[in-house]
Amino acid sequence: MSFPSITNNQEFFSDHYLEAIIANDLKGLRSDWDTREHGDEYTPRRGVRTLRTPFDKLKQDAEAATVGRDLEPLQGLHDAILSALGFEPARHTIETARGEVVQVAVPVAHATTLPTGLRLVALEAVYATSSDEALGPDSRLIEPLMLDGSEIAEPTKAISLAFTVDDPPRHVLLVAGATVVLCARDSWPEGRYLAVDLDLALGRNDTKAQGELDTIAALFSRDALVPGETGEAIIDELGASSLKQAVGVSADLRDGVRRSVEDVANEIVNQRLAKNLRVYNEPDVARRLTRESLRFLYRILFLLYAEARPDLGIVPTLGEGYRDGYGLDRLRELALTELTTDHAINGTHLHDSLDILFELVNDGYHHEFAQQQFTESGDAIDDTGLI
């Protein structure tokens, strides 16, 4: 479920979760929207879809707005975006403190306050076409935060300050023209955030169920970020599910690597014993076996990654000769085949095949161009044959 307009920086959600699982976890929200829309009620999904009509005109007017000049067109664009996402624009300044001594003033375009305290604030920055630009050193807030009389206008510093006041919000939305950045208090210090390029998304106009605009509404709207009757916001439930999935994947990988090292090392021992070669009286045998087995596994993992990313040009995965004669898919199928003869059971075909593949990657396939491919982007090799 990845979309070009959405940036999952430093895995705000784990990439695997965002790609394969989150759509299922959003079924409840989407079902609620279906019911409300059937009754002709407003939903953020409908709001984001209808934002496309006024967006281009608002964007053109807002692009020319800069700090110190007429900011009304930019604020008009921000109002339309916030309203589409279900947040009522209401500009005001929150007077708070840090450490009960240092006074802090936070100008916001919207604030959601619950009985439990401040939940979300929306800050406004100058027009940006990407999250990197919106959070970059040249970006500026329309109205700076005030820290003990000093202005904090750089968005990254302002967001960090907003999260460290005495009554901090759970989330900060930075609205910067066509770019919206979602920051969470617990993950912002790690550089993790979620962002969307609305110009790109609205231009693509993917309005199908579970499509791009649907997903943007499901992740950035009030319905997702503010707790409902359950007492927990959907975005927090998604974050907990993402963490659970990531921990599960890490545990599976860790256990898989451990078992694989044991299998490889035991096979080395068995084959050496079968050939009457020394094993147990070799110096430091356990550490050496572990190290060499891990190296072997790392080479296989590298090849799996290289085959999954044909755009890198490391191995010619698009060539039929590679897929049918050398690739790991062929070896995977062989590994699942039940072996019945002594020759097959005790043979070394898998190892010999991997050895050839390792050698081709190191020395045979465009090896003389490998360094320049990584350092000179314009010098890509245009053939996909196997050398």
Listing every helix as H and every strand as E from the N terminus to the C terminus, the arrangement reads EHHHHHHEEEEHEEHEEEHHHHHHHHHH
Choose one word for the global shape. elongated
Low-confidence runs of at least 5 consecutive residues = 378-387
**Mean pLDDT over the residues:** 86
Query: Biggest sheet, strands in spatial order?
Result: 1-10-9-8-5-4
Strands, count: 10
Report the sheet-strand fraction: 15-25%
Structural class: alpha+beta
> Helical content, roughly?
40-55%
Distance between the termini: 36 Å
Number of helices: 18
Q: Main sheet? A: 6 strands, mixed
Radius of gyration: 28 Å
What does this structure look like?
The chain is about 50% helix and about 15% strand. It has 18 helices and ten strands. The longest helix has about 40 residues, at about 235-275. It is elongated. The two termini are about 35 Å apart. Mean pLDDT is about 85; it is low at about 380-385.
Give the helices and strands, then pairings.
Layout: E1 6-9, H1 15-20, H2 22-25, H3 27-38, H4 44-50, H5 52-63, H6 72-84, E2 92-98, E3 102-108, E4 110-114, E5 117-128, H7 131-134, E6 145-147, E7 150-152, H8 155-162, E8 171-177, E9 179-184, E10 193-197, H9 198-204, H10 212-220, H11 222-225, H12 234-274, H13 285-308, H14 320-325, H15 328-335, H16 342-346, H17 349-364, H18 370-375
Parallel strand pairs: 5-8
Antiparallel strand pairs: 1-10, 2-3, 3-6, 4-5, 6-7, 8-9, 9-10
Helix pairs in contact: 4-10, 5-6, 12-13
